[in-house]
Amino acid sequence: xxxxxxxxxxxxxxxxxxxxxxxxxxxAPTAPRIVRDFVATVLWAAEHPxxxxxxxxxxxxxxxxxxxxxxxxxxxxxxxVDHRQMTVYxxxxxxxxxPCPRTAVRPDRDEHGRGLLLVDALAVRWGTTAYGARSxxxxxxxxxxxxxxxxxxxx
Length: 155
Fold this sequence. Notes:
Elements: E1 19-26, H1 31-45, H2 52-69, E2 74-81, E3 85-92, H3 115-122, E4 125-131, E5 138-146
Antiparallel strand pairs: 1-2, 2-3, 3-5, 4-5
């Protein structure tokens, strides 16, 4: 098995205390399901069952984007959870494909393009982080859900 080094996550968005959980999966069609189950298990163990549905939906959309829009061989997931919030980082090895939500989606015609709009609606905040300074080698799409359930509608 190949050893994988996960780059450190940007500190400003991680809770100061709490548990950190990491998972590395192949960037394959099964990745969203595996990561959804992983995140749900972490939240149940952390006694945040009210965040499970939103977290599963958000992480599924972000991991699906990595599968559909990158050539990264694997996806690295880091979940940090404390009593107030949880933050999920989904990192792939394709820094050039920075995701952005579509501004106009037509429900009667567009089959794709709603994922980041859902993340934006459910998360307290979300964004992307490139790793590697002037020569990026990977990127993370991250989102934070609050235990108080206070989401906002813009990133």
